[in-house]
Amino acid sequence: MLAGASFSQPAIALRGVRKAFRSVVAVQDVSFEVRCGEIFGLLGPNGAGKTTLLRLILDIFRPDSGSLLVMGHHFSPADKALIGYLPEERGLYTKQKVQSVLEYLVQLKGVPQPQARANTLRWLERLEMLDVKDRKVQELSKGNQQKIQFIATVAAEPEILILDEPFSGLDPVNSRVMIQAIQELAAAGRTIVLSTHQMSLVESLCRRVFMIHQGRQVLYGDLEEIRKQHSDNSVIVQSNADYSHCPWVAQAVSNGRGMQISLREGSVPRDLLKWLVEAGADVESFEKTKTPLEDIFIKMVESK
């Protein structure tokens, strides 16, 4: 863990951060926290300001105003070795052999050569890449190059990981391997900022998210709470009930999983459930619908 850090304070904290490039304001009055040991989702359409935010966290850019703290203190040169960054763009020496490239990049983070080699081989084995260690990077597929770049990010064992589109080029099988690796890192106490356009992966990995659009915050907080705020007050029910006589139902439509019931304004799911019980209906399942994060994402972008 970073010197002087504790789990009582956030790993990353932005407070009213602003960053402009001449007349273009890339980030305006942005505030959020990333907790120690969590996988935090950073969302936004292309050009929204995500990359600027990541580079601010990495101290590549400095904010024009506001504050940015890492483990409770302002960024110092020593912190760079303790933050791993997986950029969206490729950053590997393609004409060199995989193991040599990885060992070199890990040593740049201050890891001694014997430990760099051990970490490299362990991660190559973990991601099922040990058989390519003596091949040149340019000989690998796009997906395997992405896995190598991920290893280059994590093998130095940084406390904080900034992952920008880490699943780029991966097939479903390798995506699952990567998901498991990220979950293991978080379980071991690593803090992970995940920036991606793949909403289904955010839903499976993240409990809290921040969404930026046109440089400003549009969503921030617990993912389940955000879903509740944007829910359409409907349930999916499998039963033999006749909903035409239910006073709580505005609309009932079959959706392949049962009947999707849109409730009248002012009613709640338990009103319908109580009616089903009192009507003597056989209920196989009763589920509150969850608005997909992708639908919320599109709605928020189109409304601005």
Please give a structural write-up:
A hairpin with a 4-residue loop joins strand 12 and strand 13. The protein folds into 2 domains: 12-227, P-loop containing nucleotide triphosphate hydrolases (Rossmann fold); 232-288, no CATH class. The protein is built from 9 helices and 14 strands. The radius of gyration is 23 Å and the shape is globular. It has a 6-stranded mixed beta sheet with strand order 6-7-8-3-9-10, with helices on both faces. Strands 2-1-4-5 form a 4-stranded antiparallel beta sheet, covered by helices on one side. The protein is α/β, with parallel strands linked by helices. The relative contact order is 0.13.
CATH homologous superfamily name of the largest domain? P-loop containing nucleotide triphosphate hydrolases
Number of strands: 14
Q: Provide the domain count.
A: 2
Portion in helices: 25-40%
Strand coverage percent: 25-35%
What is the ordering of alpha helices and beta strands?
EEEHEEEHHHEHEHEEHEEEHEH
Mean of residue pLDDT values: 90
Low-confidence stretches: 1-6
Task: State the shape.
Answer: globular
Structural class: alpha/beta
Give the biggest sheet: 6 strands, mixed
What's the N-to-C terminus distance?
A: 40 Å
Which CATH-level-2 architecture of the largest domain? 3-Layer(aba) Sandwich
CATH topology of the largest domain: Rossmann fold
Q: Which CATH class of the largest domain? A: Alpha Beta
Radius of gyration: 23 Å
Give me the number of helical elements. 9
The main sheet orders its strands as 6-7-8-3-9-10
